[in-house]
Amino acid sequence: MTKARILADYVAGGTTAAEFDYMDGVTSNVQTQMNAKAPLASPTFTGTTTVSGDLVPSTPLSNRNIVINGGFDIWQRGTTFTSPASASYTADRWAYLENGTMTHTITRSTDVPTEAQSGYKSNYSMKIDCTTADSSIASDVYNFVVQKIEGYNIQPLQGNTVTLSFWIKSTKTGTQTICWRNSGLNMNMIKEYTINTTNTWEKKEITWTFDNSGGTWDYTNGIGGWLCWNLAHGTNFHTTKDAWQSTSGVMSTSSAVNNTDSTSNDIYLAQVQLELGSSATPFEHRSWGDELAKCQRYFQLIQGYGQNIPVGSAFWWNNAELGFMIELVVTMRGPVTVVAPTGTNFYRWVAGTSTYSTDITSAYGAGASRGGGGGNNTMHKVIHAYKVSVSGTAGQSGHLYAQGASFASTEYMAAKSEL
C-alpha cells in the first residue's frame, strides 16, 4: 500500500484504525487523532444528509419565536385605530403608550417586505402613522409601542444570549432604539439601530445577553418583560446603551431621533422575532390557528360585528338582569374580564316564543359584587351578568343574540386577561 492514497479512500473501504497505524509505520492512533479533531464551524450540506445517533440542537427547532403575533396576522379588535388611548391594544398583543401631545393612527397594512427580500411571505405589517406632531419633546414625555411578554415565556432566555430580528420601514432616518424592560422596570437594556434609507424596508438584528442577577423578574403568568419600539422619549428616559440599567424608567438614548416631529412620519413593522442564540434564523412560520390560539390566551372575541350572531344561552337572575355562561376556547392567562358594548337595541333576547330587543344598560366585569358576575370568572369559563332595559321572570332561560343593526365598527364583546 502507498501512503499517497487519500484518507477518504481507506475510510470508504472500511480500513480500521490499527491498519492505519500499520500502514503509517508509527505508533500513534489515527482514530484518536480523528476523534480529537475540532468540529466543523458552520458547515453547509447539500443533498440528503443522514445523521446516526442523536442530533442535539443548541437552540429550539420549533417555537423559537418568543414574540406572539410577530407577523401581525391577528387583529381581533379591528384593523384601524385612530388616536388610540395610551395603553390600549391594537394588533393582538401589541399596545400603544404615550403621555404627550402626539397622536397616531395604527392600521393593518399590506405594505410588507417582499419574499425576495425576506425569504418569507408576509400578509401584513403594522403601520404607525403620525397624525399630530410633537416637534419639541418635553423631558417627561414618552411614546412607544410594546409587546408585554408573559413570565413563563421568558424562562429559557435568562442567562442566555438572544437575538431580536425585525423588518422596518421608516420615513425618518437615523438612530432608533428598542428597549427590553423586566417586570419590575428595574433592569433595562437599551439597544440602538440605524434606519439608513427613508421609506425602504430594512432588516435589523440586535443581540444581547440576559442578566437576571438583579432587579425583579416574574417567571409565571405575570409580566415577564416589555419589548418596546421607541417613537419619542424626553431626557428623563435617556441613558447609555448596551448595558443593563437598574434605574427605573430609562428606555432610550440621547442619540435617538424624534419620530413624532412631523405628520409625514410613518413607521411599518413586520416579521418580529425574539429567539435564543447569537444569530437570527428565518422568521418562524406558525399556522394562523396556532397564532390565534396564542393570542386568545390574553384576548378572546366572544361575539364580533354583525346581525343575529348568537352570544350564548342566558337566563334571568331577576326581573332586570340577564346572566350567561361562555366556555372559553383556550385557557386564559388569569382571571377574566368581559368587555361588552352598551347602547340601544344592541341585543335580542329570545325566550320560548317571545323575542325582545334590549339595551345593555350596564355590564358586570371582573371583581364586580354581583353574584355570577366578573368576580366568579376563571381562566376557563365566563359567567357574566347584565342589567337590561326589558323585564323578565327570574329563572327563565333563553338565548342572547347580537342585534347587529346598531353596532359600530369598534364594538364587540370579548373576554380579556391582558398583561
Low-confidence stretches: 1-8, 365-375
Output mean pLDDT.
Answer: 83
**What would the principal axes of the Cα set say about the shape?**
globular
| Helix proportion range | under 10%
Terminal Cα separation, in Å?
73 Å
Radius of gyration: 28 Å
**Which range does the strand content fall in?**
25-35%
Class by alpha and beta content = mainly beta
The tally of helices reads 6
The neighbouring-strand order within the major sheet is 18-17-21-14-15-20-19
* N-to-C order of helices and strands: HHHEEEEHEEHEEEEEEHEEEEEEEEEE
**DSSP strand tally:** 22
Main sheet specs: 7 strands, antiparallel
Structure description:
This protein has helices at 7-12, 17-24, 30-36, 115-118, 151-154, 288-296, and strands at 80-82, 88-89, 95-98, 103-109, 125-132, 142-150, 161-170, 174-182, 188-195, 202-209, 223-233, 266-276, 299-303, 309-316, 321-327, 337-339, 347-351, 354-358, 360-363, 381-388, 397-402, 413-416. It is mainly beta. It has a seven-stranded antiparallel beta sheet with strand order 18-17-21-14-15-20-19, with no helix packed on it. A six-stranded antiparallel beta sheet has the order 1-4-5-12-7-10, with no helix packed on it. A hairpin with a 2-residue loop joins strand 17 and strand 18. The longest helix has 9 residues, at 288-296. The model is unreliable at 1-8 and 365-375 (pLDDT under 50).
SSE topology:
Elements (H helix, E strand, L loop, with lengths): L6 H6 L4 H8 L5 H7 L43 E3 L5 E2 L5 E4 L4 E7 L5 H4 L6 E8 L9 E9 H4 L6 E10 L3 E9 L5 E8 L6 E8 L13 E11 L32 E11 L11 H9 L2 E5 L5 E8 L4 E7 L9 E3 L7 E5 L2 E5 L1 E4 L17 E8 L8 E6 L10 E4 L3
Antiparallel strand pairs: 1-4, 2-3, 3-6, 4-5, 5-12, 6-11, 7-10, 7-12, 8-9, 8-11, 13-22, 14-15, 14-21, 15-20, 16-22, 17-18, 17-21, 19-20
